[in-house]
Amino acid sequence: MKKKWSGILKAIIILSMCALAEIIILNAIGKLQLLDKVIYLNGGALAGVILSTIFIKKKTKEK
């Protein structure tokens, strides 16, 4: 049970980091409107979920 929660926690951290990085980059470029923020947050979240599931699957295979 503890391992499951640590995996979910890692996924949430990776997910938020991806979304944050995208927002920071787009703010620096200056191509960010309110609607885009929502879309990019969802895109970052999706990328984070995919990356974290791959990462977690690799970790479980190693053990």
What would the keywords be for this entry?
63 residues; mainly alpha; 2 helices; transmembrane
Compute the average pLDDT. 69
Give the C-alpha Rg: 14 Å
Q: How many strands, which pairing sense, and closed or not: the largest β-sheet?
A: none
Tally of separate helices: 2
Number of strands: 0
Beta-sheet strand percentage? under 5%
Name the helicity range: over 70%
Terminal-residue CA separation = 16 Å
Structural class: mainly alpha
Q: Secondary-structure element sequence?
A: HH
Give the CA-based shape: elongated
Structure report:
With 63 residues, the chain is mostly helical. It has a domain at 32-63. Helices cover 90% and strands 0% of the residues. Helix 1 (2-29) runs antiparallel to helix 2. It is elongated, with a radius of gyration of 14 Å. The two termini are 16 Å apart. Keywords: Membrane, Transmembrane, Transmembrane helix. The chain crosses the membrane at residues 7-26, 38-56.
